[in-house]
Design brief:
By secondary structure, the protein is mainly alpha-helical. It has helices at about 1-20, 45-50, 140-165, 175-195, 205-220, 235-250, 255-265, 275-320, 325-370; strands spanning about 60-65, 70-75, 75-80, 90-95, 110, 120-125, 130, 135. The strands form three sheets. It has a three-stranded antiparallel beta sheet, with no helix packed on it. A three-stranded antiparallel beta sheet has the order 5-6-7, with no helix packed on it. The longest helix has about 45 residues, at about 275-320.
Length: about 375
């Protein structure tokens, strides 16, 4: 139910922003980040502000004070498709600070502001015209955030393992007291009922990996302080990889009965010949299952970040429409609602990690179930 309300509110607010763009001057000079080519007279654009703060970026924006932007540059790794434009050099590695917030070219590359490649690095010809995208292996904000979460996760797990070794026969405490009940819950309430007593052990590692990675990234994304705050699970590329992980684990471990039910199900022959109707439906189901996993996690986590940004944008919108006093007046309401949504997102973070893990376990169980 909370996800439904969030979705409806998100659609309403974004529709208002897109149909009625609102701008406000910020001391006569405003420059959005990242990679905004707007000039100072364009001012604050609510729709652009909301969207850009949930998109991926080539640097990690920390704060802005007037026209001063403070950010952490990230490595840019490009493989040129036109090495003749770069003296035969194909691989290019440099820091994103070389782009100066997306306004300058560097070594024949640029962060594009075109409609087709907006926000992406493009390759330039000798006249400075965009000729397409190179192969981009850059460490973006989403990737950096994922790496931070991996470091935090390994630290927590290794700490729990050391505590478990030193406190055998004793009641768990500290980090172990948090990690151990979660592992037992996933084993007894997700893996065993969904996969069965016979096969559940071989799937505990992927299930625990999915649950802890998703949960930690969901929660760290709600902390608006560097090195946290990256919207990792609100990035569809990340949720795609997680969904593909479930897809490959499911199909690699599928038994003979699983594949028989896909390509030769026990249905009337006219549903299989001359048109393989049921096999086509089963193969489609193989694809739609991970697709649903990908979209559900992405949409729920993205919606939370968008709604918080929408509420904060209301301060500048009211300030523009009715003066600074209105902006100050609405700010307590906007902040309170933002805090409420973030607290709701804490609950959603646990729910989404649980749902993704549960559905993955069900798919694993379907792939390894014995024929009855």
């Amino acid at each position: 139910m909370p996800a439904i309300f969030k979705g409806l509110f998100l659609i309403l607010m974004m529709t208002v922003f897109w149909l009625t763009p609102v701008t406000a001057q910020n001391n006569g000079d405003y420059q959005s980040h990242p990679g905004d080519s707007s000039h100072s007279e364009e001012g604050f654009d609510a729709g652009k502000f909301v969207i850009e703060h949930v998109l991926d970026a080539y640097d990690w924006h920390i704060a802005s004070f007037g026209d001063k932007h403070f950010s952490i540059p990230l490595p840019v790794i490009l493989y040129s498709k036109s090495p003749e434009l770069h003296g035969g050099k194909k691989l290019h590695v440099f820091m994103s600070s070389k782009f100066h917030h997306g306004h300058d070219d560097y070594k024949g590359f640029r962060i594009s502001h075109s409609e087709e490649f907006n926000g992406k690095i493009v390759e330039l010809d000798e006249q400075g015209h965009e000729i397409g995208r190179p192969l981009d292996f850059s460490i973006t904000k989403a990737i950096a955030g994922a790496l931070v979460s991996v470091i935090v996760l390994f630290s927590l797990l290794f700490t729990a393992v050391r505590a478990a070794k030193h406190s055998r026969g004793k009641a768990p405490s500290g980090v172990q007291n948090f990690i151990e009940p979660v592992i037992v819950f996933i084993r007894d309430e997700i893996a065993k009922p969904s996969i069965g007593e016979k096969n559940y052990k071989k799937f505990m590692a992927p299930l625990l990996t999915l649950f802890f990675f998703i949960l930690l990234n969901n929660l760290l994304g709600l902390i608006p302080i560097f090195p946290f705050g990256a919207n990792v699970t609100g990035n569809i590329a990340v949720t795609l990889v997680l969904a593909l992980f479930t897809f490959f684990v499911t199909n690699i471990n599928g038994n003979k009965h699983y594949w028989k039910e896909i390509f030769n199900p026990d249905v009337p022959i006219w549903l299989k010949l001359p048109i393989p109707l049921m096999p086509l439906l089963e193969v489609t189901g193989m694809i739609t299952k991970p697709f649903v996993l990908m979209v559900r996690l992405f949409a729920n986590m993205l919606a939370g970040h968008l709604i918080v940004t929408v509420f904060l944008s209301l301060i500048f919108i009211f300030s523009n429409l009715m003066g600074p006093a209105a902006g100050y007046g609405v700010s307590p309401v906007s902040i309170l609602f933002s805090v409420f949504i973030m607290l709701l997102d804490v609950l959603v973070s646990f729910i989404q990690a649980y749902v993704f893990t549960l559905l993955s376990a069900i798919y694993f169980g379907m792939a390894t179930a014995d024929h009855h």
